[in-house]
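Appendix B. Chain record.
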Amino acid sequence: MAISYVAGMFIFIFILDYPDIEPDKRINLLSEYTSLHYFTNLFLYVVFGFSLVLFSLSLYENFKEGNRLLVRSSVSTGIIWAGLLIASGMIANAGIAPAMELLRQDPADAKRFWSTIETVSNGLGGAHGEVAGGVFTILVSLAARQTVYFSKFLHYFGLMVGTLGIASTFPDLNTLTGIFGITQAVWFIWSGTTFLRKSEQRLKC
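C-alpha cells predicted for this chain:
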C-alpha cells in the first residue's frame, strides 16, 4: 500500500504534472499517456484497495481480543474505503476508451465526458478530502492502543495522520491531502513492520 501511494503520487506529480494541468487540457494528456494512466489507476486504486482488504482483515485477527466496537468499526471502515478506491480506479479506467473515441470525433464532448469521469472518480477516491482514510487510521490507532499492540509513538502518529485526512475534506485545507498521503505511507510501513514483528514473536513462542 505504501508503494502504491508513493509510486502513484510520483507518476501523477512528477511525470504527468497532473495537478498543474488545466482541467480542459487533461484529455490531451490522457491521449498522450493512455497506458500510463491506465496502469497507474490500476496500481494506485485497485491493487491498493484489495491490499487494504487484506490489511483490514489482518487487523481483526490481531486486535480481536480488544474493544469489539473499535475493532469491528476499523475493519468495516477499511473495507468500505477499499471498495470506494477500487470503484474509483475502475471507473477512471472504464472511461479512458470512450474518452479517446470521443476525442477523435468531437474534442469538446470528450473534454466534458472526461471531466465527468474525473469528478466521479475523484469523489470516490478521496482526491478532494481523505475522510474515509482519515477515519480508518484513527480507528485502527485507537483499537491498537486498546490492545497495546502499537507503540505509544505509532499510536499518536496514527492519530495525527488520521486527523490530517479528515481535515483535508475542508475546502481551505484540501492541500493537506498530499501530506496525508505521504504520512500515511509512512504509517503503513510502520504498522506493517509492527505486524510482522509481532507475528514472528508469536511463532517463536
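Further analysis of this model is presented in Appendix C.
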